[in-house]
Amino acid sequence: MRDPLDPIASNPTEQAGRLQRSAAALHARRQWAEAESLATRASTLLAAEPDTPALGRTCQALAGTLDDLGDHAEAENLYRRAATILTALPTGSPDDLMRIRCARGLAANLRMQGRAEEAGTILIAALALAEQLLGPSHLDTLATMTGLGLLWEGFGRLDEAEELYRHALVRAELLCEADLDQVAGMTAALAGLLERRGRVTAGGCRPLPV
User: Fold this and answer.
1) Do 122 and 106 form a contact (C-beta atoms < 8 A)?
2) 35 and 27 in contact (C-beta within 8 Å)?
3) Residue 172 is part of a domain; what is its CATH number?
4) Closest Cα partner for 129 from 175, 98, 84?
5) CA quadruple 205, 208, 209, 210: dihedral positive or negative?
């Protein structure tokens, strides 16, 4: 395997990106100690680097890997740095998508740290931004809706969660190339909620109100 710190990676941000990808691969193979070592090296490399779009994307990817490894505090720092960088970029570019995904990642991170109210504030803002920048039926908009629904469900705000799930499903059905796994996930979330509320019939979820 190529050394992630070989000279081909010409700057610390690129080197950190290589380390992050190697760490993610090691995590997938359950080599957690090795993955953690590489992720920590990547984080150290990024600390002194100036903010650039490339660094923002690398911070976001590394934050996800660190979350997977259980280092939620450092992951939060990286998500917040990535968010600061991405928010400063002009809209109407592929970075719009990264901005929404970064917000979802930070919200998930905060939820894992027991800070669900902060996560909710971020997801509400992310959903409004996703609808504006990506469109109401974009897959990442729907993923953000579903994430917010799951959060509301955890708060016991079941009516609001159900409404989000249902609207997400309606929008997904309008897509020409809907992600079947994502639709299945939304359907399962709604079915699980209705079952807990005792409102599932033999035919499945109750129909959408007209």
Assistant:
1) yes
2) yes
3) 1.25.40.10
4) 98
5) negative
For the cut 50, the answer to whether the pLDDT of residue 208 exceeds it is no
Q: Are residues 76 and 124 in the same domain?
A: no
Which single residue is written with the structure tokens 């992600």? 179
Q: How far apart are CA 156 and CA 88, in angstroms?
A: 35
Asked if residue 105 belongs to a domain, the reply is no
pLDDT band, residue 72 (cuts 50/70/90): very high
Distance, in Å, from the CA atom of 38 to the CA atom of 182, rounded to the nearest integer, reads 31
Of 109, 110, 84, 111, the C-alpha closest to 98 is 84
**CATH code assigned at 59:** 1.25.40
> Phi then psi for 204, rounded to 5 degrees?
105, -150
> CA nearest 66: which of 95, 91, 39?
39
Q: How many structural domains comprise the chain?
A: 2
The helix or strand, by DSSP H or E, that contains position 205, with its residue range, turns out to be none
206 and 132 assigned to the same domain: yes
Q: What is the pLDDT of residues 56-70, one digit of tens each?
A: 999 999 999 999 999
For 114-158, the pLDDT digits (tens) are 999 999 999 999 999 999 999 998 989 999 999 999 999 999 999
DSSP 52: -
φ/ψ of residue 30, rounded to 5: 65, 30
Nearest-angstrom CA–CA distance, 50 and 164: 39
Cβ atoms within 10 Å, residue 90:
7
Integer CA distances (angstroms), 85 to 45, 51, 162, 186, in order: 17, 7, 34, 31
Question: Tokens for 199?
Answer: 């409102």
